[in-house]
Specification:
Distance between the termini of chain B: 41 Å
Number of domains of chain B: 1
Oligomer: heterodimer
CATH class of chain B: Mainly Alpha
CATH topology of the largest domain in chain A: D-Maltodextrin-Binding Protein, domain 2
Radius of gyration of chain A: 23 Å
CATH architecture of the largest domain in chain A: 3-Layer(aba) Sandwich
Structural class of chain B: mainly alpha
CATH topology of chain B: MetI-like fold
Helix content of chain A: 25-40%
Number of domains of chain A: 2
Helix content of chain B: over 70%
Number of helices of chain B: 13
Number of strands of chain B: 2
CATH superfamily of the largest domain in chain A: Periplasmic binding protein-like II
Structural class of chain A: alpha/beta
CATH superfamily of chain B: MetI-like
Largest sheet of chain B: 2 strands, antiparallel
CATH class of the largest domain in chain A: Alpha Beta
Strand content of chain B: under 5%
């Protein structure tokens, strides 16, 4: 096998090909099994290896009910997934059904690579109210079509090292009452200050704290988050009355110049200046934020619900999760995102593919997935089942579902310009969080972002 | 067959050199030997390059047919601050990478020639080159981690502040350049070492008789006689250095604040991240012309085809 499937249409510019070859790891796509003996084999792609067992179980049930169809699940890591998928679309051999992401589906829909299933949904009489509110709309195209059915949802939470929490004299219940504001940081800032410890054992809220020699940062992060900030600053900004854009899905204008965001980022980066959060250079240099949490370099970390299992399984200490703090709006805030299953427009078996997608989106399969305690399925009843499955494993999943219960979720912005937007917002946010420029630089950046949407 | 029958007349009107074999007698064999390389070159370089040049004149998302837009992509390129930043970052990288690598490689080669002929030492010098680029990058990435990496633990051990090698805009690119110097200097040294072997020992004996010490011998004998080999090595390593991609892709990913967004990473991101293959192709064409110019200039400046030995 070569590093790229060499159909004639995959030949790009020499540089692009060289880049792909240089990447190396992106290679070696498996071949799709052909239909044999009148049995239709559907290829199904996903990126999360942890979720394969749950969907394998769904596939077995589906095959038992549909003797003429076999499901072949293939998994590629996130880093290679989208490159692989694009290459396969170019080669016209993409998987019949694949797990789709709300930031990716827009361009696939615009380029007619995935099927609009709205007619089939209507024909099957699927009750769209069975899914958590807001999830179906993540998959609406600009044309009003529906390009997938929701399979799961995610929010973010405040993970913490429970041993450090006990040492600091906080109880787990107190974390549910934390509040922040951009003026003095509120009880949340007091909390992260108290959990920060310098090389001499002095806490961040005690006199003599040396912010240049911090042993434990009260709050960790992995990078600036660019224009998204899902596991960095978005929970704060959204609970300060900010929203990403004028409307969603398919915004016509973004709001990075909104004073609500500017003051949020101003406060957020002040935590770096005070030594409660690591400098951006430290946060982005080397191994990831979860490893830093596991190694005791961070006391707390805002991370996604999709990492609940892996963080609870970090060794070295007891790791727990609480909800993100309440903001000036009087409510919490979180990005609400999720995944769907998309049908490749070039599939030779659209009817069988739809049957599989319909099953994946059904309570039967989603309840099965809930028992695995990996993700929160989109069907309401299955969400509840997942919460108790997580609790059985010692993970307080209420920290994530409280956002859904309280209605404090903000759906992830849906646009087909994310990649371009990030080329503007990533350096802008990097620059602000590393104190090379001021938060008011969001104004010019936002104008450039909005020019992108005008094209 | 035709070649065989015409072989004699060709030889007859051959050049002054009567014993020379027929001019075209080996042509068929030569062609057969050239076929595999030619097929590879045409399939993987020539055709994609020509297609790439065409795509650079189009708006092309790969998933829809290309649409001809004339020179729009090139106009956009001239006004694109990210393109100029990428070219600047790449040039900075090449200067650091090649400058240090070449000096170190010459030093290692000379030391190898003077001090040891041991195959083991030569093997050890080459060792980093045998490890895959991505593996080298990731191993260094972990070792240089600011909070847990062994290098920073050592720095703290001797009383220095830990450094965010990949997170600090001022350090990220030099760090990546040094990692690749480490990986490539052994290989480059071996090429130069081979060049040193070709220098006639008598020249050194003569220099010694004239009273030249080791340093003077290096400057006045070794370096000038090494020039053709150095020229070749520089053309190859500089062209390779411009193509820096994988080390950046698996470590800093272009950040912080575009400090390591080298041209190949930008092209890759445009093509595979943003599906803007037309514009990415235009950048590739420009990069190709730049590299061609650099190579020609180098060959001219170093007079690679001439040798000082004759």
């Amino acid at each position: 096998m070569t590093t790229m499937t060499s159909r004639s249409r995959t030949r790009h510019a020499v540089a692009a090909a060289a880049a792909a070859v240089a990447l190396g790891v992106a290679g070696c796509a498996g071949t799709s099994p052909a239909a044999t003996d009148g049995v239709v084999t559907l290829t199904y792609w996903m990126w999360d290896a942890n979720q394969v067992p749950g969907y394998q179980a769904c596939a077995a049930d589906f095959e038992a009910a549909n003797p003429g169809v076999r499901i072949n699940i293939e998994q590629y890591g996130w880093d290679d997934y989208w490159t692989q998928l694009t290459a396969r679309m170019v080669a016209e051999s993409a998987p019949d059904v694949f797990v789709d992401h709300s930031q990716q589906f827009g361009k696939f829909a615009e380029l007619d690579q995935i099927l609009d299933v709205s007619d089939r949904v209507a024909g099957s009489g699927i009750d769209l109210n069975q899914y958590q509110d807001g999830l179906v709309d993540l998959w609406r195209g600009q044309d009003g079509g529906l390009y997938g059915l929701p399979k799961d949802w995610d929010t973010v939470g405040l993970y913490y090292n429970a041993d450090m929490l006990a040492d600091a004299g906080y109880t787990q219940e107190e974390l549910w009452d934390l509040e922040w504001n951009p003026a003095d940081g509120g009880t949340f800032e007091e909390f992260v200050a108290h959990l920060s410890v310098d090389g001499n054992g002095v806490r961040g809220d005690e006199p003599g704290f040396d912010k240049d020699d911090v042993e434990v940062y009260g709050l960790g992060y992995n990078e600036s988050g660019g224009g998204y900030g899902q596991v960095q600053w978005a929970s704060f900004a959204l609970s300060n009355g900010w929203s990403y854009s004028d409307r969603n899905p398919w915004p016509t204008e973004f709001s990075y110049d909104d004073p609500a965001l500017v003051e949020t980022i101003g406060w957020y980066r002040s935590l770096i200046d005070k030594g409660y959060m690591p400098p951006l250079a430290v946060a982005t240099s080397g191994v990831g934020s979860q490893e830093a949490l596991g190694a005791g370099a961070y006391a707390t970390l805002i991370e996604g619900s999709w990492n609940a299992r892996s963080i609870s399984e970090l060794g070295g200490a007891d790791f727990q999760v609480a909800p993100t703090p309440v903001g000036p709006s009087g409510e919490r805030g979180t990005v609400f995102n999720g995944l769907s299953d998309a049908i490749y427009a070039g599939t030779p078996h659209p009817d069988e593919a739809w049957a599989w997608v319909e099953y994946l989106a059904s309570p039967d399969c989603q309840l099965r997935v809930a028992d695995e305690a990996r993700v929160f399925p989109a069907v309401k009843a299955a969400s509840d089942r997942a919460v108790s499955a997580f609790k059985d494993l010692g993970v307080d999943a209420d920290a994530f579902s409280v956002h859904v219960t309280d209605g404090t979720t903000t759906p992830s912005p849906v646009t087909d310009r994310w990649a371009q937007l990030q080329t503007i917002m990533q350096p802008t946010m990097d620059s602000v969080l590393s104190f090379q420029s001021e938060p008011d630089s969001f104004g010019p950046a936002n104008r450039r972002v909005n020019e992108l949407l005008d094209d | 067959m035709a070649v065989m029958t015409t072989a004699a007349p060709v030889a007859a009107r051959g050049r002054r050199d009567g014993v020379r074999r027929p001019r075209y007698g080996d042509l068929r064999t030569a062609l057969i030997f050239l076929i595999p390389a030619t097929i590879g070159f045409v399939t993987f370089y020539l055709v994609p390059a020509v297609r790439g040049a065409w795509f650079s004149l189009t708006d092309y998302s790969v998933l829809a047919p290309p649409r001809y837009v004339g020179l729009d992509n090139y106009e956009r390129l001239v006004q694109d601050p990210l393109f100029w930043n990428a070219m600047k970052v790449t040039a900075y990288y090449v200067v650091m990478n090649i400058g240090l690598q070449t000096v170190l490689a010459i030093a290692i080669a000379v030391l190898m020639q003077r001090l040891t002929r041991s195959a083991l030492v030569r093997g050890v010098v080459l060792l980093p080159y045998f490890v895959a680029n991505v593996v080298v990058a990731l191993v260094w990435f972990f070792m240089l981690d600011v909070q847990m990496g062994i290098v920073n633990v050592l720095l703290e051990g001797v009383g220095l502040d830990p450094q965010a090698f990949f997170g600090d805009p001022a350090l990220a690119l030099p760090t990546i350049a040094l990692i690749n110097v480490w990986r490539h200097m052994g290989y480059t040294a071996l090429l130069i070492f081979a060049g040193l072997q070709m220098i006639d020992q008598q020249v050194y004996e003569a220099a010694e008789l004239d009273g030249a010490g080791p340093l003077r011998q290096f400057w006045s004998v070794t370096l000038p006689l090494l020039r053709p080999v150095l020229a070749l090595v520089l053309v190859v390593t500089i062209t390779g250095s411009f193509q820096i991609f994988d080390t950046v892709a698996v470590t800093s990913g272009g950040g912080p604040v575009d400090a390591t967004r080298v041209i190949y990473l930008y092209i890759y991101d445009l093509a595979f991240g943003q599906l803007d293959f037309g514009y990415a192709s235009a950048l590739s064409v420009v990069l190709f012309l730049v590299l061609l110019g650099v190579a020609l200039l180098q060959l001219r400046l170093t007079r690679a085809s001439e040798s000082d030995t004759n």
